[in-house]
Each structure stands twice: as structure tokens, then as C-alpha cells.
Design a protein that fits this description.
Largest sheet: 9 strands, antiparallel
Oligomer: single chain
Number of helices: 1
Strand content: 35-45%
Number of strands: 9
Strand order of the largest sheet: 4-3-2-1-9-8-7-6-5
Helix content: 25-40%
CATH architecture of the largest domain: Beta Barrel
Number of domains: 2
Radius of gyration: 24 Å
Mean pLDDT: 81
Distance between the termini: 73 Å
Low-confidence stretches: none
Shape: globular
CATH topology of the largest domain: Lipocalin
Order of helices and strands: HEEEEEEEEE
């Protein structure tokens, strides 16, 4: 009889702790989702910066993101007769709403900034990494 009571109490404790752990995991996931949504909530606006260029001193980039998920992107290649190109269209969000794709380029959307990602969708690393960040004006 004592063994049965101990087994019941042990099982109840295990189930209780398992339920607490699942609640904590769900709360963590919900918090992470809310953080991503909060970071991307204020994504509308104009972002500027100068990204590295292999054949010139840099490329001046200006991207305007509109509420209707359209964009206008202007690039100016420095010291190459100041060649300027403007494109526009509709951008697409990643499934988790943390990145956008425009002109076949992926950008991570952060608080008041866009980070140009590499071809595999990774953030740049190394000492030049800050040069791939466009800041919101």
C-alpha cells in the first residue's frame, strides 16, 4: 500500500514539473515572437548607408520602405561617374518576419536599421560587418 502511494505521489510530482516546464517554454517562445514583432513594428521609413564595393570606394544606398510593403532603392557608385540606379517594387517578408527580400537581396530588419545579408542569408562577420548596416533616418 505504501509503495502505491509513493508511486502516485512521484507520478504527480513528475507531471506537475513537466507541466511547469512546458508553460515556461511556451512563454519563452511567445516572448521571442513578441520581441521580433516589436523590433519590426517600426520598419517603415528611409534607410541609408555606404556598403563596400570591389571596384569603387563604396556604394551609397538609400532604401525607402512603405507601409504597403513597397520599396524604392537608390544606389550610387562612388567615383564611377556617380552612376545612380533606382529600382522599386514590392518586398517580401521572411516567414518569421525578421528579414525582407528586395532586388534579390536579403536584409535583416532590426531596430532602426537594415543589415544586408550574404547570399546564404547570413549576417556579415569581421571588421567590415558594420559597413553592411543601413540606418534609419
Amino acid at each position: 500500500m505504501k509503495t502505491t502511494k509513493i508511486t502516485i505521489i512521484a507520478t504527480a510530482c513528475i507531471l506537475f514539473f513537466a507541466a511547469c516546464n512546458n508553460t515556461q517554454e511556451k512563454e519563452t517562445k511567445d516572448t521571442t515572437t513578441q520581441q521580433v514583432q516589436a523590433e519590426t513594428a517600426n520598419w517603415r521609413g528611409t534607410y541609408t548607408g555606404t556598403i563596400p564595393c570591389a571596384s569603387c570606394p563604396g556604394i551609397d544606398v538609400k532604401i525607402t520602405l512603405n507601409e504597403n510593403e513597397t520599396y524604392e532603392k537608390t544606389t550610387t557608385y562612388q567615383e564611377s561617374d556617380m552612376h545612380t540606379e533606382t529600382t522599386s517594387g514590392k518586398f517580401e517578408w521572411s516567414a518569421d518576419k525578421s528579414k525582407i527580400n528586395l532586388d534579390n537581396e536579403n536584409y535583416k530588419v532590426g531596430e532602426n536599421q537594415l543589415t544586408l545579408l550574404d547570399a546564404e542569408g547570413n549576417e556579415p562577420k569581421g571588421e567590415l560587418a558594420p559597413n553592411y548596416i543601413l540606418t534609419k533616418k
